[in-house]
Write a structure and sequence with these properties.
- This protein has one domain.
- Helix content is about 95%, strand content about 0%.
């Protein structure tokens, strides 16, 4: 169960990074 939770956290981080990049792109 630790592995799936690790993958989930990694996926959330990746999505968070993508959203942040999109917002940076829109603001610039």
């Amino acid at each position: 169960m630790g592995w799936s939770s690790f993958c989930e956290r990694k996926g959330m981080f990746k999505i968070n990074l993508m959203v942040t990049n999109i917002f940076d792109f829109l603001l610039v």
